[in-house]
Amino acid sequence: MNQDFVSGFWGYYVAAIVIGGIIGMAYLLLSQRIKRKAAGEKVETCGHVWDGDLEEYNNPMPKWWMGLFWLTLIFGVVYLALYPGLGVYSGTKQWTSVGQYEAERKTAEARYQAIYDKYLKMDIKQVAADPEARQMGQRLFGTYCVQCHGADAKGAKGFPNLTDHDWLYGGEPEKIQETILGGRKGAMPAFGAALGEDGVKDVANYVMSLSALPHNADRAVRGKETFTTICAACHGPDGKGNQAMGAPNLTDKVWLYSSSQTKPDAIQQSIIETITNGRNGVMPPWKDFLGEAKVHLLASYVYGLSNNPQTASK
Q1: What is the tens place of the pLDDT at every residue in 65-76?
Q2: Which residue of 49, 87, 284, 297 pairs with 11 in a disulfide if CB–CB is 3.0 to 4.6 A?
Q3: Can you give the residue ranges of the Cytochrome c domain (predicted)?
Q4: Could you check whether 106-183+284-306 and 187-282 share the same CATH topology?
Q5: What is the pTM of this model?
Q6: Checking phi first, is residue 87 left (phi over 0); if not, alpha (psi -120 to 50) or beta?
Q7: Is 296 annotated as contributing to ligand binding?
Q8: 3-state SS string for 50-71
Q9: Which three-class secondary structure string do you get for 13-43?
Q10: Crossing angle of helices 192-210/264-277, nearest 10°?
Q11: How far apart are CA 43 and CA 54, in angstroms?
Q12: DSSP per residue over 227-295, as a string?
């Protein structure tokens, strides 16, 4: 960031422009004060004539119009005295957008805290089956989660689908809540330099064979040896992953970084990119921002997306 734009100079610069504009406007209004014309005094014109005798008179503005300008100017001065607008001067009310947000948030918390506390004491499966709780969770999801997971919660390339039963870290209620509270950091190391282009393609074809997708059988045979030596440490010898460390299941035909779940060419290209360059996925933690009560509601809603909420508590 350029430090010139966060220095104190710019606050004084803005204040000087605002004050100068107010003084300039006041001077302009004063210079246009209405002067009484003496009896028989000829009205000045602007020198413009049309059709031989149609002249443009230089009459002053009406008093009511001038009055509106003065009222606007006075309002501006009073506003700037009360609220921030003069750069370094914060106004007598000391108003800030952050302070306004905090005040509104505290008001809302006081109003709804009893409801949050009620659901916090309930099991996540029970909360997921409660219609009112689902609506509250949906609103929370719509505010904080749709940017990554989409309005339908089906995710996008690099962002998990929350409506199916494929979970990197586990889909149990406690695991979902743990993920939202503390966030997740997933990392797939890059192997392109170590394996080379052919080695990467070999492993990619073996990975595709795990999901019974079209693949090159010869490359898959060579790739299996590499997979067993390098990749099985995270994904397991059978390729079914390891939820304890967020290593995905490679046998279920669900591809987090593929724009297509059905076109073999697109899937293969995505797998090759992943092995070559690695991947880094981050799910931010929400505990400090939302608090445990709201996260509890949000986790219940997410759980209900892939589980029937009507039967979750039975």
Answers
A1: 889 999 999 999
A2: 87
A3: 132-211, 218-306
A4: yes
A5: 0.71
A6: left
A7: no
A8: ECCCEEEECCCCCHHHHHHHHH
A9: HHHHHHHHHHHHHHHHHHHCCCCCCCCCCCC
A10: 150
A11: 14
A12: IIIIIHHHH-TTS--BTTTTBPPSSSS--TT-S-SS-HHHHHHHHHHHHHH-EEEEE---HHHHHHHHH
Helices and strands, counts by H and E, the chain: 12, 4
- Torsion sign (Cα): 289, 132, 312, 166: negative
| 187: three-class secondary structure by DSSP | strand
Type of residue found at 312: A
Q: Is 215 annotated as a binding residue?
A: no
How far, in Å, CA of 226 to CA of 216, rounded? 15
Tell whether 283 is in a known binding site. yes
Angstrom distance (rounded) from CA 227 to CA 257 = 19
106-183+284-306: CATH architecture: Orthogonal Bundle (1.10)
* Nearest Cα residue to 253 out of 209, 307, 192, 298: 209
CATH architecture label of 187-282: Orthogonal Bundle (1.10)
d(CA 309, CA 314): 10
* Cβ neighbours for 74, distance < 8 A, ≥ 6 positions apart: none
Decide: 160 and 256 in contact? Cβ < 8 Å: yes
Q: Is 145 annotated as a binding-site member?
A: yes
Q: Is 188 annotated as a binding residue?
A: yes
3-state helix, strand, coil split of the chain in percent (to 5) is 55, 10, 35
234 among annotated binding-site residues: yes
Give the residue extent of every domain in the chain.
Answer: 1-26+46-98, 106-183+284-306, 187-282
How do residues 245-303 score in pLDDT, each as one tens digit? Answer: 999 999 999 999 998 888 999 999 999 999 999 999 999 999 999 999 999 999 999 99
| Alpha carbons 137 and 145: distance in angstroms, whole number | 11
DSSP state of 44: P
